[in-house]
Design brief:
There is one protein chain. This protein is globular. The two termini are 26 Å apart. It is mainly α. Helix 3 (27-46) packs antiparallel against helix 10 (169-191). The protein is built from 13 helices and no strands. The protein has one domain (2-275). It has helices at 2-13, 16-23, 27-46, 55-79, 84-91, 94-106, 112-134, 140-159, 161-165, 169-191, 200-236, 239-252, 258-275.
Length: 291
């Protein structure tokens, strides 16, 4: 049963870019509604634990929520400006940025294994972006936005690290999602964007982002940590760019190329090398959410 749950979780977490492209709605509306719906589901469990939300914790969560907002905004923007395969591959570098951030801000040591992992991931990014540069720069802005999204995600992970140790996961996610949803609403309102009036297919995509990705995929991964551990699940997550690329090929006719395969091999090898290092290995609740 648990191997089946793992397959379902990986499939769910390979969907965000495909669902965002299928939603065909403004960035701010996509971000707001997916997080609002997720918060509505989490609220019954988070509300009874509200007394644990002290002022210092609330400030820390506000910072984490702002970083999560930036991660989702840049991820969603990249969907319309590069291929799904490029987006998911660039985003899959986030464990590397988390490790680098832990060294910069928490003074966690870096050894030869970690430096080798960074070099492999950097080589993969160069190969990946080289395809965009070779195509006259088409998609390069989207590739850079995807890479920036990975960096913001890593910053969200690191910002929430200490808060998560003293706060249960449901309360943390509810508060951080609510903060990010507020920022999406504020940004959309300032732009005068629409919040409704879309076809049923758009609402279906938004619901799938909330329930299948933000809750289902992440929830299953958290549950499966008790069985498989962080290393196994993090390696399983490397299947997501492959599934997303195949989905984009089937649904949108996005081409696949040997360059994509080479970039994936380099980035995946770098991530696996990094995750096998006890010093750089992320904690159970610090690496399993995305997009």
């Amino acid at each position: 049963m648990r191997p089946l749950l793992l397959v379902i979780a990986v499939v769910c977490l390979s969907l965000p870019a495909l669902l965002i492209r299928g939603a065909r709605a403004p960035i701010e509306a996509i971000g707001f509604w997916r997080l609002f719906l997720a918060c509505a589901v989490l609220a019954p469990w988070a509300w009874p634990r509200r007394k644990t939300m002290t002022a210092p914790v609330a400030r820390s969560i506000a910072v984490a929520g702002a970083l999560f907002f930036l991660h989702l905004w840049t991820f969603t923007w990249a969907v319309s400006h590069t291929s799904v395969a490029h987006l998911m591959l660039a985003f899959s570098t986030h464990p590397v940025w988390t490790g680098l951030g832990a060294w910069l801000f928490f003074k966690e040591p870096l050894g030869r294994r970690e430096l080798g992992a960074f070099a492999l991931a950097a080589a993969g990014v160069v190969v990946l972006f080289g395809g965009s540069i070779g195509a006259g720069g088409a998609g390069l802005a989207g590739d850079l936005s995807a890479l920036l999204s990975a960096m913001f995600f890593s910053a969200w992970v690191l910002a929430g690290r200490r808060v998560r140790r003293g706060l249960d996961t449901v309360s943390f996610l509810f508060a951080a999602y609510a903060a990010a949803a507020f920022l999406f609403f504020a940004a959309g309102t300032a732009k005068g964007g629409a919040w409704s009036g879309w076809p049923a297919s758009t609402w279906a995509a938004l619901a799938a982002l909330a329930f299948a990705v933000s809750l289902g995929g992440h929830g299953l991964f958290t549950y499966l940590l008790n069985t498989y551990g962080v290393l196994a699940l993090s390696c399983a997550k490397l299947v997501e760019p492959v599934l997303a690329a195949l989905g984009a090929f089937w649904l949108f006719g996005e081409p696949l190329s040997p360059r994509l395969g080479a970039a994936f091999a380099l980035i995946a090898t770098g991530v696996v090398v990094l995750l096998r290092s006890p010093r750089a290995r992320p904690g159970p609740r610090e690496d399993l959410a995305e997009g």
